[in-house]
Each structure stands twice: as C-alpha cells, then as structure tokens.
C-alpha cells in the first residue's frame, strides 16, 4: 500500500463526507423530513437490503 493510495483514501473520505452533508442540506427542498429517526431507519434498512442482495 503506497503513500499515494493512502492519500487518495483520505481525500475520498472527505469528499464523501462533504457530499453527505450537502445531501442532508438539500433534502428538505424536495421531501418533508419530519422525524430524523425515520430517515435513519430507512437508510439502515437500505443498507441491510443492499448487503443481502450483494451476497447473491
């Protein structure tokens, strides 16, 4: 694992965090957020379904 690969991982991590924050900021423009726990549960359910589907 080279130094450039590690730097690439770090830059990619910050890019993903920035895009995630931008998604949460722009989301209320398109849908009613309501209770944040419901959205957290929906995201986790999507993760579980995607993980299950990826195994097949």
Structure write-up:
- With 56 residues, the chain is mainly α.
- The protein has one domain (3-54).
- It is built from 2 helices and no strands.
- The chain has helices at residues 3-26, 36-54.
- The chain is flat and about 45 Å long.
- The mean pLDDT is 87.
Helix run count:
2
Quote the distance from N terminus to C terminus: 30 Å
| Subunit organisation of the chains | single chain
Calculate Rg over CA atoms.
16 Å
Q: In percent terms, what proportion of residues is strand?
A: under 5%
Low-confidence stretches: none
* Series of H and E elements: HH
Query: How many E strands?
Result: 0
Structural class given helices, strands, pairing? mainly alpha
Shape, principal axes of CA atoms: flat
What is the average of the pLDDT values?
87
Percent range for helical residues?
over 70%
Please supply descriptive tags for the structure shown above.
single chain; 56 residues; mainly alpha
Concise synopsis of the structure shown:
This protein is an all-alpha fold and 56 residues long. The protein has one domain. The protein has 2 helices and no strands.
Show the helix and strand layout.
Blueprint: H1 3-26, H2 36-54
């Amino acid at each position: 694992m080279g130094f450039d690969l590690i730097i690439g991982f770090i830059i990619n991590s910050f890019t993903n965090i920035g895009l995630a924050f931008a998604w949460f900021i722009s989301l209320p423009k398109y849908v009613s957020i309501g209770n944040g726990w419901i959205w957290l549960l929906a995201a986790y359910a999507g993760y579980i379904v995607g993980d299950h589907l990826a195994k097949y």
